[in-house]
Structure formats: structure tokens, C-alpha cells
Specification:
Blueprint lengths: L6 E6 L8 H13 L3 E7 L1 H10 L7 E5 L10 H7 L4 H10 L5 E4 L3 H12 L9 E7 L4 E5 L9 H18 L7 E4 L10 H11 L7 E5 L1 H6 L4 E3 L2 H25 L4 H9 L1 H11 L7 E4 L4 E4 L6 H16 L2 H12 L15
Parallel strand pairs: 1-2, 1-4, 2-3, 4-11, 6-9, 7-8, 7-9
Antiparallel strand pairs: 5-6, 5-10, 10-11
Helix pairs in contact: 1-12, 3-5, 4-5, 6-7, 6-13
Length: 353
């Protein structure tokens, strides 16, 4: 980011279930929360301008780029790459590549955002595969988890790179100090799991992150908050995330069901309403909205497609934190410190350098 100008976020106004309404309303919230941030908004002017006027965006805080094209939520990424070079999502990524913005934020098509961001921004030196990372609530604290679906299969080196990126992300977003790292596995014993997971464990124990590595963790450790960073391949991570989200919805549904069966249960609900409101606030997905495609030469943040204004504003906040805390520089420095052997993919021994 150029120190002589304000931090600028490129916003895809056309992505998401409730766009452009929720997007522009979210920008308005972020406008108040981040007075030093400007917004570069991409979208169809005929559809977006009424919401800019409705929410009275400060004319001095945003620039608008008209583009009638946008990527539909159900469009295949391969099709979007061929036909979407003039879309709001593509042009928002190009703004980051060209130095016109510091990060791109979109609630749109996840596959298209991943494809566009990889093509336009490229990966950081030393990173072979970017990963999707987000923050999850736990019993004791918030934790970082990756990969959540970008890579179905991963090598040991990929998992170690994810650990590095997760460490940098935790420090940037949660202001963590030496966060603990765990590899998601089917058991905590060293003999458990696939070869690449066991190999990644050994590589981490011999890396600069050795003091932070806590070994293998199981799925129930995520909710317990056993570690600060949970590392997984994208196939396993995505299933774990969907299971967590489904369980949260189940609990909310069951609570609603049991409070309407009798006068006593309704009375109990009223007595517990303050605590239930605190629980709802802690579990509100909007508070944790903003998953990043980490490992790129730019900040690309994915807001949930169904996010409301509050959720989208939080995704914008994630982007602001990542830029201000120099996430990209932190990842680059930590990857360099690993000293990977490019032929074998393993971390090189200090005596060999």
C-alpha cells in the first residue's frame, strides 16, 4: 500500500444473494467504522446507484466503476474465466493487481473468485497452493482454520505452507502471539493418519514453527479451542466446517422447538433470554464473515453469499486488518525461513545451507 494514499478496498457490488443492497449497506457501515478507508465499487450503475443514494454513501469516500457484466452465483468457474473478463469481479481483482486497490472483497461465486484471484494476482513466491482460511468460534477463544475447500488433496509441503499462512493470518487478524498449531487428523497418536499428514507433522517439528506445533488434533478439538490454528486439506476441512455449521443450526432449531411446548418452557426461555442473546451473538455467522484466499500476491476476501450488511461490513473489516498488518509480507518472510529444498519439497537441514 502506498503510504501517500488512503487504504482502498475494491468491492464487487454484484456478488451475493442480496446484492447490491447488502453490499452497499455494508460499505456504509464500514465507512463509519474505518474513516481512513476508501472504496472502489464495481457494478451495474443502473442497479447499484439507487442503493448508493438510499444509504447516502459519502461521495468523498468512494469511486464507482460501471460494468454491466457480472458473474452469476451458479456459473461454472471455467465458463466465468472465458466470458467474465469485463465483469465486476474480474475488474475488482484487476484493481488490486494494478495497484489501484489494496484488497478485493466479494460475496459472489466462490469458484469464480478463486479462479479470478489466482489468475489475476498469482501466488506468493514459495507458495504452491493458496488456501481458504477463516475464523471460527470455540469454547474458549476464536481459532483460525484452513484449508476449507480450495485443495481437495494436499502434499506434506502444502500442509506446512498452510500452517505458515495460518500463523501469519492469526497474528494479523486475531493479534495472536505465538499461536499454537494443530494438524487435523483421525487421532492424536503419531501413527494415525495418511502418510502426508505424518510427514507434515515431522516437517513442522523441524521447522521454525516447532515451538508452536501441538501435534495432531481431532474434529472435536476444533470446538474445544485446543489449538489456535487448525490445518487440514481442503476436502476434510470443508466437511468439518459444514458439519460445524449444521450442528450450530441444529442447536438453534432445537432451542426454538423446546421453548414452545409448554407454559413452563416459555417461562424458562424468558428467564434465560439474556444468556441466550449472548449465545446467539457469539454464534452469529456475521461476526466471523470474511474468508480469505490466502497465499496470493494480493488480499482476496470472500464474504458469505447470504451475508447481510453486518456480515459484509465484517468481511470488509477483515480485509482492512490484513492489509494494515502486512499479511503478505509476513507470509513471505516465514516461507523464506523454512528453507525448502526445491527438489525434494522437504525443509532443508541448516547444515546444508
Amino acid at each position: 500500500m502506498d503510504d501517500k494514499r488512503s487504504l482502498i478496498l475494491a468491492v464487487d457490488a454484484m456478488g451475493g444473494d442480496f446484492a447490491p443492497d447488502s453490499v452497499i449497506a455494508g460499505v456504509k457501515m464500514a465507512e463509519k467504522k474505518f474513516p481512513d478507508v476508501r472504496f472502489k465499487i464495481f457494478g451495474d450503475e443502473e442497479k447499484v446507484r439507487p442503493y448508493i443514494e438510499k444509504y447516502a454513501l459519502n461521495a468523498d469516500r468512494f469511486d464507482f466503476v460501471h460494468t454491466p457484466d457480472y458473474v452469476a452465483s451458479d456459473e461454472k468457474p471455467s465458463v466465468a474465466v472465458r466470458t467474465g473478463r469485463k465483469s465486476s469481479l474480474w475488474l475488482a481483482n484487476m484493481a488490486v493487481r494494478n495497484g489501484e486497490a489494496d484488497a478485493v472483497v466479494s460475496s459472489g461465486n466462490t469458484g469464480a473468485l478463486m479462479a479470478f484471484s489466482k489468475l489475476v494476482l498469482g501466488t506468493l513466491p514459495g507458495i504452491h497452493r493458496p488456501a481458504i482460511v477463516t475464523i471460527l468460534p470455540t469454547r474458549s477463544k476464536e481459532c483460525v482454520m484452513l484449508d476449507l475447500g480450495a485443495n481437495a488433496e494436499c502434499s506434506a509441503r502444502n500442509l506446512v505452507e498452510f500452517a505458515v499462512m495460518g500463523n501469519a493470518y492469526s497474528c494479523a487478524v486475531l493479534q495472536s502471539q505465538n499461536p499454537t498449531i494443530g494438524l487435523l487428523n483421525i487421532g492424536s497418536e503419531e501413527i494415525k493418519g495418511r502418510d502426508e499428514i505424518r510427514e507434515a507433522s515431522q516437517m513442522l517439528r523441524e521447522s521454525p514453527l516447532a515451538g508452536q506445533f501441538a501435534g495432531f488434533v481431532e474434529a472435536d478439538d476444533i470446538g474445544k479451542g485446543t489449538v489456535d490454528i487448525v490445518v487440514s486439506d481442503g476436502f476434510t476441512g470443508n466437511i468439518a466446517l459444514k458439519a460445524i455449521e449444521g450442528t450450530a443450526r441444529l442447536i438453534v432449531g432445537l432451542l426454538k422447538d423446546v421453548t414452545v411446548h409448554s407454559i413452563i418452557s416459555k417461562l424458562g426461555f424468558l428467564l434465560a433470554i439474556r444468556s441466550l442473546k449472548k449465545l446467539k451473538k457469539k454464534m452469529d455467522p456475521g461476526r466471523y464473515n470474511g474468508a480469505m484466499l490466502v497465499g496470493l500476491k494480493g488480499i482476496s476476501v470472500k464474504s458469505h453469499g447470504g451475508a447481510d450488511a453486518f456480515g459484509f461490513a465484517n468481511a470488509l473489516g477483515v480485509a482492512v486488518n490484513l492489509v494494515k498488518n502486512d499479511l503478505l509480507g509476513s507470509i513471505s518472510r516465514q516461507i523464506t525461513e523454512l528453507h525448502f529444498d526445491e527438489e525434494t519439497g522437504a525443509a532443508a537441514d541448516e547444515s546444508d545451507k
